[in-house]
């Protein structure tokens, strides 16, 4: 493969060229598609895009995707992509859109109060493209009998992405949510396998019930930790939390953690042992990253704006080329990038 069409071009073996390109960020790859037709075809091929995503996921090149609901002026939802090593942020102004999940650089967006017939889009903010999903043909139940909640994730068995109504988290192609029994008010973790389309139900330990109802004010904060479903709940002691993990169809308490900050609120996990926190200091709200293994905390000095409140749903994000050559994809115009949204005191 030649890098240009000129007589003085340097020949680069294709396997070496691919190895080099796989190490580059999305922004550079999009620019390099303009070098020549062969580079355009290579970078835009489904095999290269898949290998690039896998290499970034394997190397844990994830960032935190944090949501802020702004109350000043016209209501907006802004998602800040925090790069963990520096805590620098790229911020996305999402208008009135709601984030229902993030997977391999794709975001699932809907209206802020979705129902069965609300439009749903899958977008890639790294390349500013999106695909609109077809509207369901299911019959609408009475308004008082259902609440529509969406979950989005990747099913490795099907090698495809799935959107599930009534899910709160997706892990390995399985959607999870919590339901309460009408007779005894017991709490159950319900799962739906998007591949086999099979439902399962697990009774949650009574030790979790109070924490679920008191701490989050709702049953929508199911996290994914090391490819397992988990819950982060108050332990009953000041500045302590319990981490419960689903193992072999049972919930087990994995950790009880003391955070070295005031009023910590866990927000979400990376794929390793890092957890994002919101905490208070001198009457203001800040973000920090805590490592569960080393017990070390990285206080970011990122101060949350007074006129915004934090969405307790935090996803991880990794830039990718997905949707780059999808014939259904359209240019993404409803989301703008602003920098910065949250300013530290560095």
CATH architecture term: 6 Propeller
Number of domains: 1
Q: What is the CATH third-level topology name?
A: Neuraminidase
The top level CATH class name? Mainly Beta
Overall 3D form: globular
Radius of gyration: 22 Å
Tell me the number of helical segments per DSSP (H or I, 4 or more residues long). Answer: 5
Secondary-structure content class: mainly beta
What profile does the largest beta sheet have? 5 strands, antiparallel
The spatial strand order of the largest sheet comes to: 22-1-2-3-24
SSE order, one letter for each helix or strand: HHHHEEEEEEEEEEEEEHEEEEEEEEEEE
Strand tally, please?
Answer: 24
What distance lies between the first and last C-alpha atoms, to the nearest angstrom? 47 Å
Low-confidence stretches: 215-220, 337-346
Helix content: 10-25%
* Share of β-strand residues: 35-45%
Mean of the pLDDT scores?
Answer: 77
Short summary:
This protein has helices at 14-21, 26-32, 37-43, 46-58, 206-215; strands at residues 63-70, 76-83, 88-93, 97-103, 106-111, 121-124, 129-132, 150-155, 160-165, 169-171, 174-180, 187-193, 199-203, 223-225, 228-234, 240-247, 250-258, 262-269, 274-281, 284-291, 297-303, 308-317, 330-331, 336-338. The protein has 346 residues and is mainly β.
């Amino acid at each position: 493969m030649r890098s240009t069409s000129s007589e003085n071009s340097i020949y680069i073996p294709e396997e070496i060229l691919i190895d080099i390109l796989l190490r580059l960020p999305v922004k550079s790859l999009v620019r390099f598609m303009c070098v020549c037709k062969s580079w355009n075809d290579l970078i835009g091929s489904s095999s290269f895009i898949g290998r690039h995503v896998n290499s970034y996921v394997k190397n844990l090149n994830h960032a935190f995707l944090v949501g802020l609901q702004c109350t000043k002026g016209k209501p907006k939802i802004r998602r800040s992509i925090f790069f963990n090593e520096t805590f620098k942020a790229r911020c996305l102004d999402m208008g009135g859109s709601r984030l229902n999940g993030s997977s391999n650089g794709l975001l699932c967006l809907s209206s802020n109060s979705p129902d069965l017939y609300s439009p749903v889009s899958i977008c890639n903010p790294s390349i500013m493209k999106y695909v609109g999903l077809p509207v369901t043909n299911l019959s609408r139940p009475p308004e008082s009998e259902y609440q529509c909640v969406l979950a989005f994730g990747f099913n490795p068995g099907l090698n495809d992405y799935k959107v599930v109504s009534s899910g709160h988290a997706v892990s390995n192609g399985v959607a999870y949510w919590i339901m309460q029994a009408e007779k005894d008010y017991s709490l159950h973790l319900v799962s739906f396998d998007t591949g086999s389309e099979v439902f399962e139900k697990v009774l949650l330990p009574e030790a979790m019930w109070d924490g679920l109802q008191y701490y989050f004010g709702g049953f929508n904060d199911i996290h994914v930790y090391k490819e397992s479903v988990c819950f982060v709940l108050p332990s009953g002691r000041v500045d302590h939390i319990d981490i419960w993990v689903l193992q072999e169809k049972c919930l087990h308490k994995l950790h009880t953690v003391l955070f070295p900050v005031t009023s910590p609120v866990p927000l979400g996990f990376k794929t390793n042992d890092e957890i994002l926190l919101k905490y208070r200091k001198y009457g203001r709200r800040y973000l920090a990253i805590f490592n569960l293994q080393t017990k070390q905390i990285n206080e970011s000095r990122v101060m949350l704006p007074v006129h915004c409140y934090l969405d307790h749903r935090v996803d991880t994000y990794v830039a990718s080329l997905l949707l780059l050559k999808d014939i259904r994809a359209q240019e993404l115009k409803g989301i703008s990038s602003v920098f910065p949204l949250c300013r530290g005191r560095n």
